[in-house]
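In the design runs reported in the main text, the only information available to the sequence generator was the tokenized backbone. The following block is the verbatim input for one such run; it is reproduced so that readers can re-run the procedure and compare outputs position by position.
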């Protein structure tokens, strides 16, 4: 991080640590799910709820949090989020039964919603151009690395201690970040912005009802009033939420932002890419334990090559995107990841990690390294700094909703059971989602207006 000034370096560290805990907790739970089921009871539906309770509140409240961050100050909101996340993490670790665990996971997601938009907004508010792209690349490398190393850390804790310690990993980075925030004296840009609390309620209740119907339909069936009624209520509430965004003076989801080319197309690509990542992470973490019978640690180690490649290459990809534009990287990266997902079809009853899983992990890591930093930079660089908080919140909400929906549909995707056939079904769906992300990026993404296109610059010089 030698390319940054001391203040910029401090901002990047704070942003990484604040986002680290939310990204980590979104994935660290995956390898702990079998151990949680053994101790507290529950099958695949309970496992889905442990993941989705966190994602529901994170997804539903992240838009509201972005608006609150812009209105009341990013540093203040970050401090509140860090403290609340720490308290909720302890509650998860102490949960005596599945219901308390799921409620505490929902509380974690609500606190996490305060952290992600405010942390990334600090970067977009203090840096622009190639420096911003490089900073986002560093942020992406470490936060995505947290997502990917989460299963490994979770596996070690499950095997050596208990799944409960998995959720106490957050305490140290939260404490360190609170100290750094106190010492850095980062400037606040508080503005007297209205916050649309009603929209936040509509979004939260609507998403919750829809996800309930998607998860529980496997148990009750679509014809049950316990399923179709929440489904209809969820659709009505989400429609009301979108309608309110068109009339609200301070919308949580400013629909006009989607008319900005890179923001609109970039978020569509985000939807496909992060749905694929969430599906892939879930099925690998659970199947490798329940299928081949690997330990939690070994299942976590399976994705380590992706983490290493992300840390090594992501910052460089962000810098390349700042120089050459994001389109090529955002198109090629997901297509490479689609190939990696298809390589998982080689997983057979006679399991061999080195020939059946490792090649897929390497290809997935290369594609992910090319994709994430350019994607984030293209989307946030398209929006003015004054709305960086809400822009970050929208993009993160899209990625979380993508993961939320694909995990809710997991039983349908795998055919009811995460056996070998179900694992292969998930690989096909993952590859298709990645490919869609690449195609969408190639069609829609262009260089942001603030960034000069080298080809256009050369043509202008030749004309002159």
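Verbatim output:
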């Amino acid at each position: 991080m030698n390319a940054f000034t001391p203040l910029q370096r401090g901002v990047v560290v704070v942003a990484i640590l604040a986002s680290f805990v939310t990204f980590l907790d979104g994935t660290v739970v995956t390898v702990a799910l079998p151990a949680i089921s053994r101790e507290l009871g529950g099958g695949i539906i309970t496992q889905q709820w442990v993941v989705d309770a966190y994602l529901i509140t994170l997804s539903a409240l992240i838009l509201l949090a972005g608006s609150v961050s812009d209105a009341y100050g990013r540093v203040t909101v970050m401090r509140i989020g860090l403290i609340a996340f720490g308290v909720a993490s302890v509650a998860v670790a102490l949960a005596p039964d599945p219901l308390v665990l799921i409620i505490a996971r929902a509380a974690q997601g609500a606190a996490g919603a305060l952290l992600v938009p405010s942390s990334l907004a600090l970067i977009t508010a203090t840096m622009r151009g190639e420096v911003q792209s490089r900073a986002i690349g560093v942020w992406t490398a470490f936060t995505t690395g947290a997502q990917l190393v989460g299963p490994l850390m979770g596996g070690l804790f499950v095997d050596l201690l208990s799944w409960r310690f998995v959720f106490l990993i957050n305490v140290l980075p939260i404490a360190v970040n609170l100290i750094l925030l106190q010492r850095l004296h980062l400037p606040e840009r508080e503005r007297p912005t209205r916050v649309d609390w009603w929209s936040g309620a509509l979004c939260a209740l609507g998403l919750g009802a829809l996800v309930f119907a998607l998860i529980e339909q496997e148990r009750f069936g679509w014809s049950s009033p316990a399923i179709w009624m929440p489904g209809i209520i969820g659709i009505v509430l989400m429609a009301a939420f979108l309608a309110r965004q068109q009339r609200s003076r301070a919308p949580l989801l400013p629909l006009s932002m989607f008319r900005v080319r890179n923001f609109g197309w970039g978020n569509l690509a985000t939807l496909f890419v992060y749905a694929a990542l969430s599906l892939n992470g879930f099925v690998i973490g659970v199947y490798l334990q329940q299928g081949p019978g690997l330990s939690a640690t070994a299942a976590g180690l399976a994705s380590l090559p992706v983490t290493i490649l992300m840390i090594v290459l992501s910052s460089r990809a962000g810098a390349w995107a700042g120089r050459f534009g994001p389109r090529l990287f955002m198109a090629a990266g997901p297509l490479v990841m689609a190939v990696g997902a298809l390589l998982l079809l080689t997983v057979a009853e006679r399991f061999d990690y080195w020939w059946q899983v490792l090649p897929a992990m390497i290809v997935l890591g290369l594609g992910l390294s090319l994709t994430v930093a350019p994607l984030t930079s293209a989307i946030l660089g398209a929006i003015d700094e004054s709305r960086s908080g809400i822009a970050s919140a929208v993009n993160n909400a899209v990625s979380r909703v993508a993961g939320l929906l694909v995990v809710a549909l997991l039983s349908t995707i795998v055919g009811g059971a995460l056996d070998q056939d179900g694992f292969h079904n998930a690989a096909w769906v993952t590859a298709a989602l990645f490919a869609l992300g690449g195609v969408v990026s190639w069609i829609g993404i262009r260089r942001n207006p603030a960034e000069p296109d080298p080809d256009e610059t050369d043509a202008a010089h030749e004309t002159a």
